[in-house]
Write a structure and sequence with these properties.
Elements: E1 19-25, H1 29-40, E2 48-53, H2 60-64, E3 70-73, H3 80-90, E4 95-99, E5 103-105, H4 109-119, E6 123-130, H5 140-155, E7 158-159, E8 167-171, H6 172-178, H7 189-198, E9 202-213, H8 219-230, H9 233-241, H10 252-270, H11 276-287, H12 290-300, H13 305-332
Parallel strand pairs: 1-2, 1-4, 2-3, 6-9
Antiparallel strand pairs: 4-8, 5-9, 6-8, 7-9
Length: 354
C-alpha cells in the first residue's frame, strides 16, 4: 500500500513524510480487515503498511494478503514487543505509525500525526485516544470498556511522559535512538518504553488521532486480562505512574474503595453490624470519579449506569488483587517482568535479546 501525498492545505503546504504503518497481529482476523480498510481511507495515504504477524493460527495472514501490504510471519509467537520490533526493522518510512490490529483509525489520523510531529522537532511521539463507540458492538461489557477507555484518555490529552502504542507515531530516527521494545515484556511494554523515550523527547497524547477499538466483550476474559496486567503495577509501573502528567486509567482511591467493598461485603453477611462498611465502600468508589459517571450517563443514559458501576467495581477489585499478586511475585521471583531479572534495557530493532 504505497501512498501519494495528501491534498494541500489552503496555504499550499502538504505533509511530505513517508509513513510506515506497523501492525502487530496475533489472531485478529476478525478486525484486521476493518483496520486495513481504515488505512486505505486516510487523507494522507501511508507510504507502506506492514502486518507483523506473530504466528497467528487463524485466517489473519489470508486477510492481510487481500490488501496491498507487506506481511511478515514469525515462526513462533513472541509477543507484541517482538512483533513491533520486527515490523519497525523492515520499515522504510521516515515516520513509524504503530497501530494495533483490533483498531481502525479516523480518516485524518495519519495526516494529523505527521503535522504534529513536523511542527515540533523535540516531539518524540504522538499517540491517540480511543473512540467513544466500539469498533464492533458486542454488547454491554464492550461498551463499558470502550466508554472507560475513551474517557480517561480524553481527560489526559496533552503533554505526558506516557506513550501507548496502540495508535502512535514517532520519527524513525527517534525509534532508532531509543531502541526497540523490550521483547521480554508482553504487558506494560508501553510503560517501560515510555521511561526510555520520555527521558529524551517530549510525548503528546492528542485527540486528533482517534481509533475505534474492538474491546473484550466477555466478562470472564476481561476480568482475567485486568488481573494479569495489574500484576506489573507495583513492581514495575508504579514509579512511572507517580511522575507528573503520567496517564492513569483508574484512581488509587477507586481501587482501594473497590477492594474495601469486596472484602467487607461477605463479612457483613456474617456480622450485620458491618453492613454500613460495603455501602460506604460503594459510595466512596462512585465518588472517586464523578466525571466518568457523568460522561457515561450522557453517552448511554442513566439506565446503563448501574451496570457500568458494577462492572467498573469488579475491574477495580481485579486490579487490586493483581497488583498485590504482582508485588508478591516480585519479592520471590527475580525474573518477574523480564527475561533476565534485570531492569529492561533498550532492545535492538530486530527484536533479538542479544
Amino acid at each position: 500500500m504505497t501512498g501519494t501525498a495528501a491534498a494541500p492545505d489552503a496555504d499550499g503546504s502538504r505533509p511530505t513524510a513517508r509513513v510506515s504503518v506497523v501492525i502487530p497481529n496475533y489472531n485478529y482476523a476478525r478486525t484486521l480487515e476493518l483496520c486495513l480498510n481504515s488505512l486505505a481511507a486516510q487523507t494522507l495515504p501511508p507510504y507502506e503498511v506492514i502486518v507483523s504477524d506473530d504466528a497467528s493460527t487463524d485466517d489473519s495472514v489470508e486477510v492481510a494478503r487481500r490488501f496491498d501490504c507487506r506481511v511478515l510471519r514469525a515462526e513462533r509467537n513472541g509477543g507484541v514487543s517482538a512483533a513491533r520490533n520486527a515490523g519497525a526493522a523492515a520499515a522504510r518510512g521516515d515516520i513509524l505509525f504503530f497501530l494495533d490490529s483490533d483498531q481502525a483509525l479516523t480518516p485524518d489520523s495519519l495526516e494529523n500525526a505527521v503535522r504534529l510531529l513536523s511542527a515540533d522537532p523535540e516531539l518524540g511521539c504522538v499517540h491517540g485516544i480511543i473512540a467513544a463507540e466500539p469498533l464492533v458492538d458486542d454488547g454491554p461489557v464492550e461498551w463499558y470498556r470502550t466508554l472507560h477507555a475513551h474517557h480517561w484518555r480524553l481527560k489526559g490529552v496533552g503533554p505526558t511522559p506516557t506513550a501507548f502504542f496502540a495508535a502512535a507515531a514517532m520519527p524513525r530516527r527517534v525509534f532508532e535512538e531509543v531502541g526497540g521494545f523490550e521483547p521480554a515484556l508482553r504487558d506494560s511494554e508501553d510503560v517501560e518504553y515510555s521511561e526510555r523515550l520520555s527521558a529524551r523527547y517530549a510525548i503528546v497524547l492528542t485527540d486528533r488521532i482517534v481509533a475505534a477499538h474492538d474491546e473484550e466483550y466477555r466478562l470472564g476474559p476481561m476480568l482475567r486480562e485486568q488481573f494479569r496486567r495489574a500484576q506489573y503495577l507495583l513492581p514495575f509501573a508504579a514509579a512511572h505512574r507517580r511522575r507528573p502528567g503520567a496517564l492513569r486509567a483508574n484512581s488509587a482511591l477507586g481501587v482501594a474503595a473497590a477492594l474495601l467493598t469486596a472484602v467487607s461485603a461477605p463479612a457483613a453477611v456474617v456480622f450485620p453490624v458491618l453492613a454500613p462498611v460495603p455501602v460506604l465502600g460503594v459510595a466512596a468508589f462512585a465518588a472517586a470519579d464523578p466525571a466518568l459517571l457523568g460522561f457515561v450517563r450522557r453517552k448511554r443514559g442513566a439506565g446503563f449506569l448501574p451496570l457500568f458501576v458494577g462492572l467498573h467495581l469488579l475491574v477495580n477489585v481485579q486490579i487490586a488483587l493483581g497488583a498485590a499478586t504482582g508485588w508478591v511475585r516480585s519479592r520471590f521471583d527475580r525474573d518477574f517482568g523480564t527475561s533476565t531479572g534485570r531492569p529492561p534495557r533498550p532492545a535492538p530493532l530486530d527484536g533479538r535479546t542479544g
